Amino acid sequence: MGRVLGVAAVIALAYAPALHAEPRWQLEARVGGAWNAPLPVVLRQEGHPDLRLSARWRTNALEFPIYYGWRVSRWREGAGWALDLTHHKLHLEAPPPEVRRFAISHGYNLVMLQRLAERGGWRYGGGVGAVVAHSESEVRGRRFDEHGGLFRAGYHVSGPTVAALFGYSRTVQGPLRATAEVRLTLSNASVPIADGTARVPNLAVHGTLGLGWSVSP
């Protein structure tokens, strides 16, 4: 019995620092791209029948404004909470004659609260949040005015989004860390067009590379 208690005491002492580990903050920036699954899109415009499309999207990740993301996270004992923004982009391929232009390129922005875990550098987790979209369109000869919405800058809170992610993070030097991540997102947004709205769901697989900076208080 004494030996068992002795072993238990040694184990407890070994894990004591982790149990009382100080929290750390991490700021990450990343770039990458995404593949978008073809999904039905419905455009509803006053005075016209609904226009239904089997939409295919390009991300055009390296065209301005580029695809990017950032994350601010707080970690303790291998688990963390994070605020994450992914500046996702959608450009409609092969639009029908009624649609001269349709894009959400200043952001099909995915703003999320995430719960993360990390073991041996491997990271996984999920998140929920909202799509904040900035759409640009001309449908049936009517061009959408991009100056409304949040801050009169064309941004609109457009619907919910959820995500699951898996990645790897390792120390480069000191507080600097390199990250690689794959993410699956499912979103459902309703964005304004001239005299109407467009329902734009999105299922995407994202791949990103980035750098992070860790700070302990």
Task: Provide structural commentary.
With 217 residues, the chain is mainly β. The protein is built from 1 helix and 13 strands; from the N terminus they run αβββββββββββββ. It has one helix at 2-19, and strands spanning 24-36, 39-45, 51-55, 57-58, 68-76, 79-92, 99-119, 122-133, 136-139, 142-143, 156-173, 176-193, 196-215. The protein has an 8-stranded antiparallel barrel with strand order 1-5-6-7-8-11-12-13.
Describe the structure using short key phrases.
elongated; 217 residues; mainly beta; 8% helix; single chain
SSE topology:
Blueprint: H1 2-19, E1 24-36, E2 39-45, E3 51-55, E4 57-58, E5 68-76, E6 79-92, E7 99-119, E8 122-133, E9 136-139, E10 142-143, E11 156-173, E12 176-193, E13 196-215
Antiparallel strand pairs: 1-5, 1-13, 2-3, 2-13, 4-6, 5-6, 6-7, 7-8, 7-9, 8-11, 9-10, 11-12, 12-13
Radius of gyration: 22 Å
Task: Note the overall shape.
Answer: elongated
How many helices in DSSP terms? 1
Strand order of the largest sheet: 1-5-6-7-8-11-12-13
Structural class: mainly beta
Strand count: 13
The helix/strand order is: HEEEEEEEEEEEEE
Q: Roughly what fraction of the amino acids lie in strands?
A: over 45%
Q: Largest sheet, described in full?
A: 8 strands, antiparallel, barrel
Distance between the termini: 42 Å
Q: Please state the average pLDDT score.
A: 89
Helical amount among residues, as a percent range?
under 10%
